[in-house]
Amino acid sequence: MFQNLRKICSKYPITASYIAVAVGLFLAVQVYRIKQGTPADSVFDTALWKLGAVQPLVFVYDHPLIKEDDFPTGGPFDLWAGEWWRILVSGFHHGDLLHLLMNCIAIGYLGRLIEPRMRSWLYAAFLILATFISLLPEYYFDHYPVGLSGGAFAMFGLLMMFRKIDPDLAEEFTEREITWGLGWLILCFVFTYLGILHIANAAHVSGFLYGLLAGAVLINRSRYAGLLRVSFVFAQLLLIPCTYLICHPVWNGKYYWYLARHEDDLTQRIEYLRKGMELAPGEPKIGAELALSLYRTEGEPFRSWEIILQLLKQNRSYDKGVEIARLIWKQFGSEQQKTKALEVVADVFGDESDAWFERLQLDQATIAQAEVPLPEVVDAPGSDLLFRKQTEPQTIRPRDLTAPPVDPRSPQSAAEGVSL
């Protein structure tokens, strides 16, 4: 058996090496898990990270009011620090043994058809580029995949082109194999849609298209063949800006939170947090840190007060936000400041202000003296039908200090045990 395996590896060294790296990393992950003495998922994720994969690690700010595991603000911080090579390494990692076996079988079958028909250096370059390129689209969707399936689909697309000019290959790689491959590509979308498996479909499609394009360029025999090949080679330079954008995702609010976390200048940190909150208003830690950062710079912390209240309106079960709000409230020393702060509460929470006065444990004497006006409840004919969805939670639990009435439009508003 081992002699046959050695013979196969010597005949297809590039394909064998491609598979061997994946198998080696998988075994290394298992060894790490055994040494830790537990098969927990967190240990598995840690092993992937230590062995070079991209992992959406969770960090919390060291302020005592927001140092907890709930509502984590995380992201691929290693990528944001410039470790772009982790994208390629992630391709060689696999989620479990079945995932590894399926990819290795597919690559072994496809590789033995491709390797004899390509120069070794060109075939190796194709596999590396296909693995890297196929994973890039996933990161634009904030997905963090592992596996060589994108590379396998690139090999599949390449063979579809090669068989057009190679009759011997067409006899072995028939229409039946093509139907099976395309059927599996579509079936993966179905599995993902139904929630059966979370599959990196963007990696599959991008790998497949890359293989088709590479094959179309390599089999071209027109007078423009040389120009097409040179253009295709230089097109790989687009990987540089694409990779740069993944490492600097200016559209991602969490990225600005990451920049703020590593920024010493308080003014610049506040600007980063403002941008982060603008892009990701549902991330409570971004708003919490912005409120605390402003709180440190303000004599009268009304901006930080309004920000933390807006944050609580969107994240109603975020208890640490309540603690921060109480901290800021203590800085309103005069009755005039407290009255103004109460008006902000009424403006932000409207008809729910009474419940929030109690939950925030604000000064009841000040509330009574302030006579804060609350928005009037519409009581016109038929208004019970128009506003029923908004008012029913208030009538059921008007004084629920743990989680004020749930806003069905906000997915962050559900407290534990509440169904939206």
Automatic annotation (TrEMBL):
Look up the record and report any one GO term of the cellular component aspect: membrane
Q: Return any one Pfam family short name.
A: Rhomboid
Query: Which segments cross the bilayer?
Result: 12-32, 97-114, 121-140, 146-165, 177-196, 226-246
Enumerate the spans annotated as Peptidase S54 rhomboid domain.
82-220
Q: Name one GO molecular function term.
A: serine-type endopeptidase activity
Instruction: Kindly state which keywords UniProt assigns to this record, in alphabetical order.
Output: Cell inner membrane, Cell membrane, Hydrolase, Membrane, Protease, Transmembrane, Transmembrane helix
Chaperone is among the record's keywords: no
- Give the chief site where it resides: membrane
Matching InterPro entries:
Peptidase_S54_rhomboid_dom (IPR022764), Rhomboid-like_sf (IPR035952)
| Record membrane topology | Multi-pass membrane protein
Task: Please report the name of this protein according to its UniProt entry.
Answer: Rhomboid protease GlpG
This protein's species is Gimesia fumaroli
